[in-house]
Every structure is written in structure tokens, then in C-alpha cells.
Amino acid sequence: MCGITGWVDWNTDLNQQKDILQAMADTLECRGPDAEGIWLSTNAAFAHRRLAIIDLEGGSQPMIANKTEENDYVITYSGEIYNYIELTKELKSRGHSFKTQSDTEVLLRSYIEWGASCVEHLNGIFAFGIWDKNKQELFLARDRLGVKPLFYAIRDGAIVFGSELKALLANPLVQPIVDREGLSEIFALFPIRTPGHGIFKDVKEIRPGYTLRFNRDGSHPTQYWKLESHPHQDDPETTAMKIRELLYDIVQRQLISDVPICTLLSGGLDSSSITALSAEILNRQKKGKVQTFSVDYQDSEKHFQATPAHPSLDSPWVKKVVDHVDTNHHNIVLDTPDLIENFLVPLRARDLPSMGDIDMSLYLLFKELKKYATVALSGESADEVFGGYPWFHSKISLDANTFPWIPFTQSKNISIEGILSKEWADKIHPQAYLDRRYREALDEVPQLTGESEEDKRIREIFYLTLTRWLPTLLDRKDRMSMAVGLEVRVPFCDHRLVEYVWNIPWELKNIGGQEKGILRRAMEGLLPNDVLYRKKSAYPMTQNPSYARAMRQRMLEVVMNPQSPILELINAKKVHAIIHNPTEDSSSYNGPTYLFAYLCQINEWMKEYNVIIH
Fold first, then answer.
1. Which residues 6+ apart lie within 8 Å of 95 measured at CB?
2. What are the residues whose beta carbons fall under 8 Å from the beta carbon of 267, sequence distance 6 or more?
3. Angle, to 10 degrees, between the axis of helix 495-502 and the axis of helix 236-254?
4. CB atoms within 10 A of CB 557
5. Of 219, 237, 222, nearest to 160 (Cα)?
6. 90 half-sphere exposure, CB direction, 13 A CA radius
7. How far is residue 153's CA from residue 159's CA, in Å, rounded to a whole number?
8. CA torsion 528→533→536→539, rounded to 10°?
9. What is the DSSP string of 238-288?
10. d(CA 588, CA 601)
11. Cα–Cα distance, 532 to 329 (Å, whole number)
12. 438: helix, coil or strand?
């Protein structure tokens, strides 16, 4: 995957700025523990941290290529191009020659051949920057679903970019200033973030499916991919068959690696499908058993309480799949002290406040997994693509004039206006900000002429989930995995699958009366029926009361410390009252425990990043 960063400046000789480039690269060391590279010129400078996956010897970056003696191209790139073998053949037929076996060189040659439209030829997950010496132009690009991150900031004729916010903040041009809009993102929208918003003042992110050209005339963003609505023509049998064929091809492509590879397994439909397909493909290729990994909590059976989001424990279902598929399985068991000890790791990985124990547990799972493999396949995003979340099936969400997950992620008893101080609530108007971002998102939805009002609303919910909710989970997956130098691939994010399923009617997606019914039908015969039709259960959260107590105590310490920077933003009396109201405490996504964790992370973020509220 790697970490990338760079700087283009028309007013500064960047040959003299190696120390700053080095500092920017150093922030991304965890993303690329295998190698480092820096390239400098007068107006452009790139740095790269490498996690070697393909062509371990020949894929070093930044990589330089020539079309003519006068025209150099330089690339710094993070990601995987899954169709690089086909592209290599096509480019060779067009007269290109290659010095390496890496997808990096294929990507660079694709740009030389097709220019900005090279992205339309790519199947993969990517974020990259290319310096075109002849044009004196920087070209930035991000994959269609936004699996790989890419932030940037423009300052007085210069642009600074990087895989993570910390790389930008290592450059003196970018200061950790957060204005009212940034605070609105933190308090009003969490856990989502407005596409393209970098939280810090005038820091942006390349939106999924976008490119950006930066030259002396300024910046020029272009959308090269978006969802399009068309009538679905296939019958149920054909639809299920196409989904299965697509997934087989996707998984087969994503199993390509020159380093050990594995799958994440929860015993649910999504991860079990990816695992079963991987096992079948590896068996046909005579490459042995698939390695699988799951996460659980100490004494989970003792503390487990079934909820609509978590109707069952994962462990019995994981065992069913392991036995059926015959994998080499590893179960990672975590306890409350593990979570508390790593409380700030997600914050430092994300450069922003995070989602509490979910992020911590993912990090710890990936840290242990890294001992065995460098690449993992995940079932992430199937719920977004096929409609598996509760809000797809809830009249409350269908009727709500807001983001459909709000009823499931915000407490009825705890409002943002109540948590914020009156002064800041009056300044940022969180509800108005939320409403505005919701209306903006709805305006983007590609409607289908002739749809019923109900189908139109379902299409809106799919769009909101794919473009607002999914990026949050992809960010989490990327930062927690790259914090330990692990690449996680997401087969359900292949744009061919997303495009096809987008236009499948809701009654067909839901065939059989169960969420993701068409996916279940597509996977028939691959998994045991009870696994195939298991009711969705969300990513496991700890239900150990010790974690809730620890978060309550940590929050109490924050509100009792007059030096806590968050106190200028929040209603400390209200938070104090919630701390001392144990009847409201729970381990749900919208309970006080998660509020406490989030507020504590905001407090630490303001301290560690020297955040300036403006």
C-alpha cells in the first residue's frame, strides 16, 4: 500500500527543502516499513514509504520514466492495480517497454500513454501523484470508492499532499487550525465526514472518483467516475450468477501477491463468502490452505447480551466456516486492559478523534495478524453495496429527513447541542450544519425516471450509505491496518460490482425477504445454509463493564482538570451529569461509553496536535 507525500511550489527551490520532505516522509513510516525514497527538483519534490507487495526488488519509488529525453515523469503511488498484467500487455503492444515487474511502472506508463484518462483504465485501489516535467504539472488521483486516502492543501501558489494529515502538518505551510466548519464536522457529523473535507482549515481530500491537476494556473479537479442509474434487465437467476462470477474474478485478482496473504473472518455472510472463494481459488492453484483471522473479547460469552445490532456471538459461526472451508485459523482474543493501553493509537493513526474500542480492537487484530501475513482480504462494504444495515429496513429511517443512520447512532437522551457549550452551539449551529450537508448529499443522487417514491427513497439511502457512511469505515480500515504495515483489500469495493448492484431493484436485492438476499443466493452451495442465512451481526464491540467504567473514569478526569482544552468547547456540567447517571450507561454505538471515549479523544487530539481553534 505504502505512504506517499509531496510538494509542488512555484516560489521556492525545493532542492533546498530535503529536511522538510524527510520530516513529511517520516510521519508515514508505519505505512511503508520496507523502504524509503525521496526525489527533489526545483519546483516539485516527492517522498515515498514502501510496503513491498508486488515485485519486491523492482518496485522502488519515487519512480522516474521518460517518454523523450526532455520529458520526465515521476510517480509516488500507494495501492494495488489488480489488472496490471493486462495493462502491461496492452502497453507493450503500444510500444512501451518495462524495466520492472511492478504495478507502479505499469501505472506510470499508463499515464504516459493516456494522460489524465489513465484512471479510467485502472481496476484497483490507489492514490498517487505524478509530476509531468514537460507540462510543469502535478496530477493527483484517487480510486473510485476512496479506499486509499489522499489529502492536500494549497498555500500561496504551492500544494502539499500526502496519504495522511500528519504528512501535511509536518510542512510549515500547513498549521493545525480548526475553524467553525471543522468543529461542525467533528461535533455535528461524527462518525461521518463530508467528502473532500480535511477538518483542518483549508485542508482537503481528493474525493473518491476524482483527479486533480495543479499547475501555474491553479488547481483543476475532475470527476472521472460516478454512479449512474439505469433499469436492471437481468432476471434473479442471471443476477445471482453475474454477482458470483464477478466476485470470483475480483477475489482471484486480489489474491495476487508476492507476500503472505490471508482473510478476515467473522462468520458472517460477507467475510465467509470472501474466505470460501479464496479457499476455492487457492486450492485450484495448489497454493495450500487460506489463513483466516477473527477477533473476540475475553469472557465474551459471560458478558454478551443480544441486541438488534449484535444478535449472536461470532465465535460459533467462525468455527462452522473454518470447519467447512478447512482454513488455518487464528482467533485473536482481547481484554479491557489491551483496549485501554492502546486508547490513543487510533487517534494518532487517524490524526482525528476516532470510534473508540472498535478502532482499538481493529488495530490490535491487525498487529497480531501482521506476524503471519502482509495482505488481508476483508468483507467490508458488502452491507453498503447490498443493503445490509438496519436503516435499509427501518420505517423510521425511510421517513427520516436526515441521514438514515442517525436514529441508530445518536442517543435520544444526549444531544450535540447539550454537549456543546451554549457559546459554541450558537456559533456552529450543529443541527443546521447537519441538515445542510444532508441536503447537499441528496442533490447528488442519480435518480431513475419512473421510480416509485419508496424506491426513490431506498436509492437515496444507498447513495448516502455508499458516499458518506462507507468512507468512514474505509478510513478506519486503512489507518488501523497501515499503522502496522498491513494491506487490507476490499473485494466488495470493486467498481464493476458496485455499478452492477447499484441498479438491482430493492425487491431483488432483498429477495427471499432477508437483507442481502441476492448475495446469499449468489453464494449458495459455497457455504453451509445456516451460515449463508445467518442474520447480520455488526462488528463485535466489548460488552465488558470494565471498559465502560474505564471510559467513565477517564471522562471524569478530563472534566475535573481545568487544563483540559476541550472544556472551552463543551458543557462540562452536562457531561458531568451524564457521568454520574449509570442508568444511561451502555455499550451501544449511541451510549454514553462511546460518547466518553470520543470526547476524551477530542481532548487528547487538541493537546497532541496543538489544535488552534479559530
1. none
2. 294, 314, 315, 316, 317, 318, 319, 320, 321, 531, 534
3. 160
4. 12
5. 219
6. 14
7. 6
8. 10
9. HHHHHHHHHHHHHHHHHT--SS-EEEE--SSHHHHHHHHHHHHHHHHTT--
10. 18
11. 19
12. helix
Q: How high is the pLDDT of residue 408?
A: 83
Tens of pLDDT, residues 249-267: 999 999 998 889 999 999 9
Q: 580-606 burial by CB neighbour count: b if 16+ within 10 A, else e? A: eeeeebbbbbbbbbbbbbbbbbbbbbb
- The C-alpha atoms of residue 169 and residue 199 are separated, in whole angstroms, by 12
Does the N-terminal peptide bond of residue 191 adopt cis geometry, omega within 30 degrees of 0? yes
Give the Cα separation of 238 and 522 in Å (integer).
10
Topology of the domain comprising 236-532: Rossmann fold (3.40.50)
The burial of 288, by beta-carbon neighbours within 10 Å (0-12 exposed, 13-18 middle, 19 or more buried), is given as exposed
Could you tell me the residue ranges of all domains in the chain?
Answer: 3-177+199-223, 236-532
CB 21 within 8 A of CB 159: no
**Beta strands of 335-475 (E only): which ranges?**
375-377
The C-alpha cell that represents 435 in the structure block: 441538515
pLDDT interval class at 411 (50, 70, 90): confident
Give the integer Cα–Cα distance in Å for 460 and 369. Answer: 37
CATH 3.40.140.10 assigned to 3-177+199-223? no
Question: What are the helix (H) ranges across 487-591?
Answer: 495-502, 506-509, 517-522, 529-532, 545-560, 572-579
Contacts of 36 by beta carbon, 8 Å cutoff, 6+ apart: 25, 29, 47, 48, 49, 50
Distance CA 210, CA 206 (A): 6
* Peptide linkage before 33 cis (omega within 30 of 0): no
Please classify residue 306 by burial: count the beta carbons closer than 10 Å to its beta carbon, then call 0-12 exposed, 13-18 middle and 19+ buried. Answer: exposed
- Report CA 15 to chain centroid distance, whole Å: 34
| 231 burial level (CB within 10 Å; 0-12, 13-18, 19+) | exposed
Q: Which residues are known to be catalytic? A: 2
The Cα 349–Cα 609 span in angstroms is: 12
Residues 2/32, Cβ–Cβ less than 8 Å: yes
Return phi, psi of residue 330, to 5°.
-130, 125
Count helices and strands (H / E) in the chain: 27, 19
Q: Which residue has the higher pLDDT, 407 or 159?
A: 159
3-state secondary structure of 9: strand
Can you tell me which residue has the cell 496530477? 139
Note the pLDDT tens digit of each residue in 546-597: 999 999 999 999 999 999 999 999 999 999 999 987 554 444 556 788 899 9
Rounded to the nearest 5°, which phi and psi values hold at 155? -140, 110
pLDDT band for 486, please (50, 70, 90 cuts).
very high
Would the pTM of this model clear 0.85, i.e. be above it?
Answer: yes
